[in-house]
Amino acid sequence: MDTRLAFKATGFLLLLVIGVPGNIFILSQFTFLRIIEKKLPPANVILMVLSFVNLLVLLSRVIPQSLEAIGVENLLNDIECKLALYTYRVSRAMSISVTSLLSCHQCILITPNTGMWSCLKQRMISNINTIILILWFINIIMYPYSMSIARAKGNFTTSPYTLHVVYCNMDFLNYFSYILNGAFMASRDFIFVGLMTLASGYLVYVLLSHEKMIKNIRSSDRKKGRSVEYKASRAVILLVALYVVLFGMDNAMWIYTLTMSNVSPDINDARILLACSYSALSPLVIIATNSKLQQKMQRSPKNRSLHWTSSNSSQPEVHIYNVS
Questions:
Q1: Which of 84, 153, 160, 255 has the largest CB neighbor count within 10 A?
Q2: Residue range 56-79, pLDDT digits in tens
């Protein structure tokens, strides 16, 4: 194996080693919480969906990339290529949408309980499952074109406007279709990045304003307040920074490729690595900023039943972002 393939295989295998266990852990623990406590806060419902779609991203794209890098050839046929690429595109779009929804949800959650905000808050909390289903529906119906142009690689001629994706080719046939597809994906990403950044920026502003208001409170309460606010602010800042950096770099490379024909496989590999990195790294941020997940990691199996008994009898926690 040459150096290029070694680096490629190492990069994608690292994404699998980090991302798959992390997303499975979040998904399983919140599912367990839902069964035991009979309910789940909307923020954690969103995190469950985010972990699920991130897991689909890793399974549908990173696993084929890893197998190809270590020398496995001709793994997918035409139907499997269509299914893998369609699953990847829908799950990646859902990852972007759900991350943005998470920030907007928290932004609305901390607004004052007055007038329109109070009504909007109640509607979002009570209809979070419906909102997620709508996002699923929109993203599912937006990508049938990807299935129609995907084919397994073979001994046939492709146009200059072809994306070579591991075991598959996506031949757009003409420059207009190639540009339109790229512009659509880049525009969608930038819109959701903008929404998430604005919502998260407002959230940080409110938290900092609240910190100023508690300066005259006795030191013990002030310390406690700052602790909660710091955790919430850190979670927002880390997720937004991770999102913007990785997807920003991905889309910058995508825009660059729009000026080229017969894009190099190395450039596509680098883009895919960046695009999938969020799905692998975001579980680390979620686990590090979610108290229930941290408790699950620290708790021994023999104390599990005792913990659930005590937690069910305790007062409900205040949810700020994912600090629940």
A1: 84
A2: 999 999 998 888 888 888 888 888
